[in-house]
Each structure stands twice: as C-alpha cells, then as structure tokens.
Amino acid sequence: MDSHKIYDDRSTTTIFASHYDEGRITRVSDTDPVLSLLAKRSIERYPLIESLTGIKFFEKTGVLSVISNEKQKKQLHQFLTAMERAGTTPCLLKSKQIEEDFPYLSFPVDSSAILDNMGGHISPRKLVSAHQMAASLAGCQIIHDVVSKVVSFDGYITIETEQKRSISAKKVLIATGGFTPFRHLLPYGFKLDLKMKTSTILKFELNDKEVERLSSMPVVIPYVFSASHQTAKHRSYILPPIKYPNGKWYLKLGLGNGPVQEFTLDNEDDITRWYQGTGSAFIAHQLYDAMLNIMPGLKYENLESDSCMTTHTKSGKCCIDMVTRNLGIAVGGNGHAAKMSDELGHIAARLRSLQHFIN
Question: Which of 9, 313, 317, 341 is the most buried (most CB within 10 A)?
Fold first, then answer.
C-alpha cells in the first residue's frame, strides 16, 4: 500500500497498517538480548538510509526505562546484561538524578532508570517511504496495490491484486502482518500460529508553550502502572511531543506488552471494526490515570484515543522462514517490530543465510 496515504476516512478502508503513524519507539534497551541486538543493528543503519534517501525519520531523544518496584529490580539487571551483550554502554540513573534531569516526570523516591542514549522514536510512515525510495534507487519497482491472492503453479508464484494486476515471480516474501491468515496468501492448508491483539493509545494535544517545556523529554517507559505507584501491573510508554501530519503536536501514551492484554482479533471483520473504532474505553481510562501520576503537571488542549493492533507468535520472536522452496514469510513483530524492522528486513531478504545470523 502507499506509505504516503493518510486514511482520515477509515469507514472505506479495508487494509490497515500500524505504520500510518508518526511515533514508534526504537531502543537498544531491552530485557531480551536478541531484541537489543536486532534494534542496535537497525539503529546503526538509520543515518545511511536518511542520507541515501533524504528522508529524515529518526529522532534521537533517548529512551528512559524506569523501574519503580523492588520486585522488578531483576529487570534492571536484565536490561544491563542485554545492552552490554549488544555492545552498548547503558547509563544507570537513580531517583535524584531522574528528578533533576527530567523535572516534569514523577516517580517514587526509590526508582532507578536506564537511559538508552542510542534510542528515540521513528516516524514509521517516513521510514517506510525511505525504505521504498532506497529500494527504487536499487532498481526495484514499487506497486501501490492490495494483494488479494497468491497462487503457486509450475515453479512460479502469481500475485493477484484488487486492481486486477497479475504479477509472476520466481520467489515471493510475504510480510503482511496481522492480515496474513485472513487473505489467500499462504499455501492451502498451511496455518500460522498467530494471535492478533488489540492495543489502545491516548494522544494528548499540546500547545506550543507545552511543547517547548517538554522539548528535552526522552521516550519514557515506566515499569509501574497504578494510582498509588505501589503495584507494577504492566508497563506503559510515553512518547515526547511529536508533530503529526495535521500540523498538531501530540504526546502519545500506550500500554506495552505484559500480563494485562486487551483481547484478540480472530478474523478480518474483527480487525476492520477495531481499526474503525477508537480503542478500549477501559484501557483509555487506565492510561489517563497513569499519565496524571507520571506527568502531573501536563497541560493539554485536547485528548483522543485510538486503536492499533500487534501480531504475536507463540515463541515471542518474529517468524522468518521459507514456507516452500520459493515462498518465504516474515511475520509476527510481537509489539517490537518498529525498532528492529530494518534488520528483520535484512534477515528476511537473506533467508538462505539465516543460519549465519543464528550463529
């Protein structure tokens, strides 16, 4: 699909994508060393892609991951270990320094934090545009159309589209996210063990004065989420002020992966209805309460909720493999795909070299 499209009228849209947004977190800081390494390789490639295409999509604001509960101290060690294994030097902050460096944030006095200076946020819309331009410069033809069917016959694969195109290829890579099980893309009888989970976000519209006050704000990932700050039920995330295509600035708040999930989407109709709505009112209220605790001085002009979706595999890792000798898949970002998408693309494009990556 056309990465420049902004679907203001979702009632007529049949295919949705999470990259129609202006803010996704990218970071090396993670408790999983594999995710740390994949993200680091992607982030290191951003300057080259931006220079090659002239499209700026990365803002290096830093990422602050805050641990505010004694039971979560082991996560602090996991962060440090994973970042060190990925070849980066983590910056450990105690509560006093958090308060001094980021006075607009409020956390318990016994908090600790990891500051990831490599991280920040990307515009997924612009990243996709940059990837498409880089591909075009390398001789690829970009076709803006929706695939309706993929058929294998006599050693070739035919791709049929909604605009009645028919494209034949010797090899095909399917990277179609949560829609993969619901369109005729995979061989007959082949099923992927995927779960599509809903996600709700809040966007706080800010005026210019508030944007200026928060100009030094990093991405914030608080591993504490309750009105009293006493029980860490799941983690949220907050992106700093970002200017959207409508010219307005928003502070975005969402709920990360954890024990509290919303619900699964079992078919394409469920996905369409979800994307055409504004998310879960229940989760939105929890997010709002969290924001009042973490940024009690926040002043905003307007507030809106929105819907998103993440695609999960049983293993918790992206599924990149060959389905047949000439049909490959790359699906299942598990809520982490944006930050490591460039490296995942490199791996998927070199499926025959996958063993080298594992080693």
Answer: 341
